Amino acid sequence: MADMLKVTLDNRNDLAVVYTEGYINNQGGEEIARVALGLIEEGQKHVLLNLAGTKIVNSIGISILIEIIEKMIEVDGKLAFCSLTPTIEKTFHIMGLAQYAKIYPDEDSAVGALTS
User: Are 19 and 50 spatial neighbours (Cβ–Cβ below 8 Å)?
Assistant: First the structure.
């Protein structure tokens, strides 16, 4: 299917970077949640979602991302986003995600902030 989300994981020592490619809808959101919740179970406290390959996030995708943020808060971890399109960034601010998860312009600035 053309709208399937591809998720790639780069699990470093103190930070896991999750790359998305495609549409974050209910299936895409669930795939991100599966990866992120697995990382949390393994004890990872810092997760960065690099959405450079994603142009659209629907409301179900956003609600799943909020669930991931809540899980990270429960374990005293940090979830952050980087490389968002202007539309997605605006949506994340409107929906309140930006209150609980920092948004960085690019991966380098996010990695620097999360690992310092």
Answer: yes
Rounded alpha-carbon distances, angstroms, from residue 115 to 23, 46, 71, 102: 28, 8, 20, 13
Amino acid at 10: D
CA-based R_g, the chain, Å: 13
Domains of the chain in sequence order? 6-105 (3.30.750.24)
pTM: 0.94
Q: What phi and psi, each to the nearest 5 degrees, are found at residue 53?
A: -90, 10
Please name the residue that has the structure tokens 């970077």: 17
Residue tagged 């960085």 (tokens) = 104
CB under 8 Å to 54, separation ≥6 — which residues?
Answer: 5, 20, 21, 22, 23, 24, 85, 88
Report the C-alpha gap between 45 and 4 in whole angstroms.
27
Q: What would the pLDDT profile of 11-46 be if each residue is shown by its tens digit?
A: 998 999 999 999 999 999 999 999 999 999 999 999
